[in-house]
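Sequence decides. Our protein:
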Amino acid sequence: MILPAEAEPVKLSSSAELHEIVFRLDGMRVTLMGLGLFGGGEGAARFFVERGAQLTVTDLRPAGRLGPTLDRLKGLPIVYRLGEHVEGDFVRAGLVVANPAVRRDNRFLRLAQQAGVPITSDMDLFLALCSAPIAAVTGSNGKSTTTALLAAMLRSTGRRVWIGGNIGISLLPSLHFIAPSDIVVLELSSFQLEDAAALPWSPHVAVVTNITPNHLDRHETLEAYAEAKRAIIRFQGPRDFAVLNAHNPVLRTWAQAGVPGTLLFFDSTPGAGELRHGVSLVGDRLVWRNGVRHEVICLRDRVPLLGLHNTENAMAAAAAARCVGATSDQIRESLSRFVGLEHRLEFVGEFDGLRFYNDSYSTTPAAGIAALSSFRPPLTLIAGGYDKKLDIAPFACAAARSVAVLITIGKTGPVLAQKVREESAGAGRSVVVKEAATLNEAVLAAVDLSLPHSAVLFSPGCASYDMFENYNHRGKVFKELVHAALGPPQAKSQGA
């Protein structure tokens, strides 16, 4: 059956419908659409197999591109349909579970809906069934680091904490271990939140780091993207909390419109003073205030991560942690022990006086700009990648003002290189610009062209799909290439 190319997105199952479906999973035909490499599909597969479902996994990618996930699922009673989708898997299923990356107007999903088959996502299943309170983090940038920071802060209270979601950990297989007295910390993407609105659902504590243009290849406009994100607060109640970035224009409009629960802010703007409710950067101190009471959480230099944006992430996490009962002392102690995440301004090593940093998680121009602001000159930048239809001009302007050497890769590379040439010439600066065909060529060019004692920053500011499976694959390849080109690192020195 062929459906029209243009149609409304399919309707996902509500929370009540999912509760009813779960009781009937034993023997049910379930189709999992999109296995993926980040854990969500794998977790969903284990969940359904454990409950006796007859599971079919279908993915347009061939087995060779799904190897690690397939290896971990080896031996489980799963039927695989790889490299294609087949209509029968959708119209004859008892439930279809779609990966968040699958567009909700997909032809096969519409066929399932037309056949009366319920449709959901792995995250919607978890949100509908989880018995513990949830603190959720979203944003265009910084959400993974904020999620990890918040989980660390809450663990310091002695409570059992589960972390998962878009950060790459599926909690579906762990549902029966999660107690109502535990707390779950989730990173949620715009795709996942758009799905969660169908339940409908919002978390007990919602944290939004920022809203800047992202995923416009799917959402098309900033307004639609922001509206998808807003599901994180839309269904909250009076006992819930929303922690928002006071300096972000989109989030200020949310605050002005009002939120159902208690509203708190975080703000790192110099000279802004103390917020009445939330965490402020006052001079060199992170200060928590709740009405008339205020406490110093820590000095800014005790945040063990590079960049003002990471200070903001720590502030957001601290405000959320206070909502769930963490004390300032506990937050301070957890910060002192925190180790940054892989691919987020990750120090790779120092080689012949050059310090290499892997920021492959930088998939938007705004993330690239934040990374640039974390370093002092001389600086070499490797950037570029898949075109998500985002405006890279601000990233080019920031690079033209701050780097000595720019090396570009990927589909956006030529445009980024040209814009930096134009901007640097207009500013009277001389930036060395090199367009590389591969990441290996870019690494070698960085070694050849960088000034002595430079930081070499790999912060693409673009997605990875034109050259790599994902940002994780891209970051690992970058680190391997650095070590292959330069050998073992010297004694580590992370000074930026």
Notes: Residues 1-5 have pLDDT under 50 and may be disordered. Residues 326 and 389 are 41 Å apart (CA to CA).
